[in-house]
Amino acid sequence: MDFRNAVAKKVEEVTGLDLETVTKLVEIPPQEDMGDFAFPCFALAKTMHKAPNMIASDLSSDERLSAPWLSKVEAKGPYLNFFVDRGAFAKEVLSEVLKEGTAYGASKEGDGKTVVVEYSSPNIAKPFHVGHAFTTILGHSLSRIYEKLGYKVVRMNHLGDYGTQFGKLITAYRLWGDEAALEKDPITELLRIYVKFHEEEKNDPSLTDSARENFKKLEDGCAEEVALWKKFRDVSLVVFNQLYDRMGVSFDNYNGESYYAKMADQVVSMLKEKNLLVESEGAQVVDLEEFGVPPCIILKSDGTTIYGTRDIAAILYRDENYHFDKNIYVVGIPQALHFKQVFSVLKKAGYECADKCEHVGFGLVKFKDMKFSTRDGNIVLLEELLDESVAKTYELIKANAEARNSDMSDEELRAIAEKVGLGAVVYTYVKAGRERDIIFSWDTMLDFEGDTAPYLIYTYARTKSILRKAAEQGIVPADSDSELLLNLKGDEEFACVKAIADLPEAIKKAAGSNEPFMVSRAVSGIARAYNRFYNNCSILSGDDESLKKARLALCKCVCDSIELGTYLLGISVVEQM
Question: Which domain holds residue 31?
Answer without folding.
Answer: 3-84
